[in-house]
Amino acid sequence: MEKARVSGHRRNIRAIAEICEVSPATVSRVLNNKPDVSDQIRKKILDAIKEHNYSPRLSVSQTEILGVTLEYSRAFSSPYVSAIFESMEDTAFDLGYDLLILRNEKLRRLVDDYSIFLRRKMLSGIIILLSKIEDTFPVDIAQAGFPHMVIGNRFDPPVNWIGGDCYTGMYEATRYLISLGHSRIAYIRHSPLYWDNQQRVRGYRDALEQANIPFAENMVRELVGEDVIAAAYNTLNNLFYSCPGITALITPNWDMLGIYECLREHGLRIPDDISVVALDDSPDMEHASPSITTVAQRIQQMGEFAVREVVKQIESPEEAAKIRRVVLPTELIIRESTRPLNSGVITASAAHN
After folding, report:
1. Which residue ranges form the domains of the chain, and what is each CATH number?
2. Which one of 47, 89, 148, 345 is at 20 to 30 Å from 107 when CA atoms are compared?
3. How far is CA 125 from the centre of its chain?
């Protein structure tokens, strides 16, 4: 078989892979001196690199780039976003790609053709993270035929997306607290402009109503403000004053410092006085004292899948024609922060008084 000839701007990791008839990931493993490549293949790749004067990652023209869109500047303070991005970055590197961060707000204001704009940024594909329900740019990008994946949100075809089953995760967490005897269960959520958060409210409400517990809108509060810790503190504090008798709380995991501070000021202990479930798992939740019960998503798998599927679309017309719609299951991880309600429990209002 005649080998591909490579020159100029095509001297990149994918071109070396084509020459050697291996995957870009195998070339990356050789470049990173990883052991799981045979001596014969390793020599073949190194010879091709030398012959074609390939210098990895020396310039943009020699590197394939994937765009990653984010919603706000403080996104990386979220363990969810940080874990997804780390997974995407590791996978992209293994496949010979770099990541470039874009802001969703810029894409919302764009009036030019999306595919032209993205290619002008020298992007080969894009991963859209934290898009809102009302956003139209993911649909426009998909209709333009640009390689893409959306993480978290849901769109009709031809948009490709992957996300967690947030409805079921929230439903199971609420049902679990109900099984422990709790009926005054508060929920602190992020913006309802995001699909996942809307699904969580549905799961929370359905679990309550199926247990014949009335859904109270004032027990669901939105976390508002750039300072997440202060916002969590203020939101929970307002809940305690306006909704007496709260015995359980479901809250995002990245606002826990504000939650801890508010509970200390009210003289409440986890789980003796209030049970707490955090949305999304992280090492901090596992190693906290007490350890925190969580609803875990397969965050690393989301990031890895998104990158691999975009790369498939870039490298294969057949793959580009496929529609990807993937829902990953969540898992309720029960730890020390939840316990059965008993007659001796101290409610928030009683502790404050």
Report:
1. 13-52 (no CATH), 65-164+299-329 (3.40.50.2300), 166-297 (3.40.50.2300)
2. 89
3. 18
